[in-house]
Amino acid sequence: MNKEAIYDSQINPLMAQIIAICKEHKINAHATFLLDDDNACTTHLKVDGDPLTLELLYLAAFCHNNIDSMYISIARQVNEGRFRNGGSMVLSLLGAKMEDSPSPAQKA
Fold this sequence. Notes:
Blueprint: H1 3-24, E1 29-36, E2 39-45, H2 52-61, H3 67-79, H4 89-93, H5 104-107
Antiparallel strand pairs: 1-2
């Protein structure tokens, strides 16, 4: 039996139960099963808020072990307004807009 068949017959039914429990109790979840180098099954469930950690896991899962691709995806998300760039030099070098922060004089 190959990995995809194992996922379909044994893991998928369990994931259906996990998803139902997470929805009932408003628990965010992310699970990625790497079946081989080119085949993954991902469940991304946001039921409560919009936590950054969950979004980063989601982006990482789809960048196929390519850190550059992940950083570029994050920079794109910043420019689309989904994430904030509060001072990351790496994201700024990739073209992500820096969040405006008030100067010390403006805070006073």
